[in-house]
Design brief:
about 550 residues; alpha+beta; Cytochrome p450; five-stranded mixed β-sheet; three-stranded antiparallel β-sheet; 20 helices; globular; transmembrane
Length: about 550
Amino acid sequence: MQLVPINTYPSTTTNDITTKTKQISVTKREGQSSQPKIKSAMLLLIILIPLLSLLFFFFFLNSNSNSKVPKSYPLVGSFFAILANRKRPLPWLSGIMQVSPSATFVLRRNYSTRQVFSGDPAVVQHILKTNFSNYGKGHVFNRTLTDFLGHGIFNIDGDSWKFQRQVSSHEFNTKSLRKFIETVVDTELSDRLIPILSSAAKQGTVLDFQDILQRFAFDNICKIAFGFDPAYLLPSLPQAKFALAFEDSVRISGERFSAVHPVIWKFKKLLNIGSEKRLKNAISEVREFALNIIKEKKQRLGEKESLDSVDLLSRFLSSGHSDENFVIDIVISFILAGRDTTSAALTWFFWLLWKNPEIESEILNEINEKSEAPVFDEVKDMVYTHASLCESMRLYPPVPIDSKEAVNDDVLPGGTVVKKGMRVTYFPYAMGRLEMLWGSDWAEFKPERWLQKEEESWKFVGRDPYTYPVFQAGPRICLGKEMAFLQMKRVVAGVLRRFKVVPAFEEGVNHEPEFVSYLTSKMKGGFPVKIVERDHLRHDETES
């Protein structure tokens, strides 16, 4: 080992020592100043770890409690269960209702909000008819949808609702219905829908049938209600700005109801960010479209004292209401009713026919028997098809859930106490899945449950509107119920007579479409189909 003499070490000056001393002092002070921050972070971590663990436990526990009323905890109520099932609310709530002995249960949403859910026909009758005056749209429903629906018929109560309903009712008499089928629907069917389906069949094109049906219904409601043809169902399938904006308005407005807490969407609206910014822009586009329809109608009314054909919009404009915003709200409400509900019902109907070919055969037999009858009489008397549509909407209702708000304290049939301001929700989607209402075979698509055999023919046997509230009931029962059925049956007859609708989901995947709900129901991701000419099917069968 080599020793190094002392005088060979590097020399250290006084300045060097001073500099190093300052560096050590600064480092020591920095270390001392960071100690409180470290202690705070450690304390926060100690608090958060058990809290997060507790939240995870509650979340996991409630995500697996799909068939019983969720537990309610101090301050937060059933928040964790609601959060865990926020992406599948309809199946989750239906599962709870199916195991509830009275088909009625109370969900505590937070420390102060309780909501009643019921599938009991007696409760439905109570809130929709017997005690109708005590159950209105209410504050929650109104504040959530006012941006989109304003003061239209679906978002208000009282005198304004009565006025809009009275004026609208004139459009649903027999004469108007016959005109709707024989001129509007049949023309749209023969001139637009059938050619598009025929072209798709020849070319082997995959169509989104949900989109096609929405376009069809949109053209129809605009023509019959406003005397305006938007020509949205064309071979090019144009992506109209209004239609896209309307779709966004429906979806985002519906998503407000499923927000973990209303403060979230209200905060985004205040800052004009995210989905609320998109909603604002979409509603602006929708209202501009509606305003242009109104201006065009006013101009036509001004040029001619009375039009040959009086439609819904003409009636409202002639009723003395000069407030354009009010009339815009009416236009938007009727587009929503006419476009989304029938198209939703038909989308799921054609899916169910594919799964049940024997029922499709029965419907086709009925169509062929009626082929020589006048258009209106043909669809009016299609009993088996009517029953099949009812059965389809039992399982997949266009409006799967609806709420009313109590004006005063009340007690529901069965004894559930309702306090002023509480929401009472009736649940057509869940009701269609209750064994107590439909028997142990409720999951089957069975049109015969609506029929009674009389000699060699079927007779339709309807259910009361409180067991089957797909079209609401009581004073608010859907004015367009008969019009909807006539339109749907005409589409079914026109399409099935010539074509078979074949789902075209990804091959090799056992695809069960997902039922989702915004303001109305949808098939998530659309309904991709291939169209097959029936002549080709008969030719293939002959060759085989």
